[in-house]
Amino acid sequence: MKSSDKRLQTIFDLLLLMALFWLVRYWNSGHFGLYEDDLTIIPGAFQRSFGSLIEFIYSYIIHLYGHARPLSDSFIYLFSWLGWRMAGLWGPYLIGYAITAVNIGLFYWLIRRVSDRSLALLSGLAFVLYAADTTQVFLTHSLGLQPSVLLILLAMHSYLSGWWILSYGLAFIVLFGYELPFVLFAAVPLFKPVWNKRLLKELILHILVMGFMLAGIFVFRSYLGESRVAGLTLKQLAITPLLHMVQGPLVSLGTFALRPVQTLQSLNPEVTLAILVVFVVLALALWRLDLSSAPGLRVLWQQIRSRESLPAPIKMLGRMAGTGTALLVLAYPLTFTVRAYAISGRDTRVHAAGVAGAAILVGCAAYFLLMLAHGRWRWVVNLLLAFFFALMAGYGFVIQNDYVHAWQLQKQFWAELLPLVPDAGAGTIILVDRAALTDTRQIGANYWNLPRILMQLYDFPADMQSVPVVHRLETGWKNSLLGADNLIQVNAVTTYSVPDYYGEFDPSRVILIQAEDGRLVRRETVTLYGREYTLKMPSKPVLPNLPHGFLYSLLLAP
């Protein structure tokens, strides 16, 4: 094949993969908002001047803030700031897409340089449609985690190009960002086409270098007293990685069977249309793959029975499947803070680094099926694979709908709440019954981060010592809300909230919000243990007299 034809194929594949990723993750991004951790960091980034931003990032890095991995939050601040000035709230999503699109291109080219175009495209499709991790569009991750994936992919390309110093330097930088993908770099020698004793020696030396870097960072963070490291026991350090290296890959691969079922359970006109469009496009794209050099099932079986040497495509698949397995297992040793069996919500970030290994394994399985199919069976397998990938694409719209709905729920909640609590002033605690809130599956709406919202909706006086705070009550809160001396307890048992705002409060400072006939209502009393307690009575308005904060225009503007 001419080099110009190969370039055209590569361009076509990359455009297909990036367009598909936009469709399945960002099609509705103009209706996305801010969620959970976003609301802590990103509004502050939006409001900074360029000089203040650079000064802040410099200080953040120098002082090793952010659990001694300052680059992650620094990326979020920088890209949020750039995105806001480029296109408002949609801007950070455009940058998040661009970062992940670069990762898609780097991954595709990584597989292309060590195998062939067909496996690169099939693995690229699995990479794009990977849905064990449902947080790709969550700004805190697309702007803070995906740059670490990008650095590791660049490190892998550098290593395979013989630029070892650069490759180790890029990998080491990841340990000061979102470190989860770091261990993937341990498998990079396996991408080499010949596996022999020389490669084994290279692999051992490579792992020793990586182990030295990882141990150095662990000692450094322990010396700093970083809680996520210092708080780990020897038992956790020994058992958790091993447990997660078993659980994580099973869940990661299992979602390729689960998500199509969930798609069919969530069909609506938009999801159905997306499935049909993707099915048609991929059926045509897969049919054009050239697998003419691959043996059919009968030939392969005869070679196995006669103990002949396996054909090159089978050897390549075996090598790539082994590499994919190693990458998938190595995606989980550093996942200490989140359960490895998560399949919904923000906790699915535990699977973020599993995308490369899982994509290669799914790509190998699809390649093998297409390789064995000839004649009319090639059409059958082609259509089945296209339908499978189309259902995976449909689940991307299920995720997007949750993000859109979660932002709408936040706007609706604050629009209903604020007229009920105009007198919320210094020291006021607003407790919202969990039963009055609607939850979404894949991202939190009106969730643990509620305490940080009201103070960004209004500009409270600088001398106000205790601004009003909103908390989300936990299920069964009535059994634990009353503490000693008849004080209201706000803690991890009674609320799902930010620990910085825990405490005990006189009922006269507390506002209770519940639901009645589908609407929020304010209670003036609450009955606890058979006794009625009077809560804060309505008084002179405070909030309507305050200037609006930055979030007001995002959450409450028409």
Q: Gap between N and C termini, in Å?
A: 57 Å
Helix/strand-derived category reads: alpha/beta
Please report which band the strand proportion falls in: under 5%, 5-15%, 15-25%, 25-35%, 35-45% or over 45%.
5-15%
Percent range for helical residues?
55-70%
Major β-sheet annotation:
4 strands, mixed
**Number of helices, where a helix is a run of at least 4 consecutive DSSP H or I residues:** 20
The overall average pLDDT, rounded, is 93
Specify the overall morphology: elongated
Rg, rounded, reads 26 Å
Give an overview of the whole structure.
With 558 residues, the chain is α/β, with parallel strands linked by helices. It has 2 domains: 3-226 and 234-406, no CATH class; 421-555, no CATH class. Helices cover 57% and strands 6% of the residues. It contains 20 helices and 8 strands. It has helices at residues 3-26, 38-47, 50-62, 65-68, 70-87, 90-114, 117-129, 139-142, 146-160, 164-174, 197-224, 227-230, 234-265, 269-287, 297-305, 312-329, 355-372, 376-417, 454-457, 550-555; strands spanning 429-432, 469-472, 488-490, 503-505, 510-516, 519-523, 525-528, 531-534. A 4-stranded mixed beta sheet has the order 2-1-5-6, with helices on one face. The protein starts with a helix and ends with a helix. The model has no long low-confidence stretch (mean pLDDT 93).
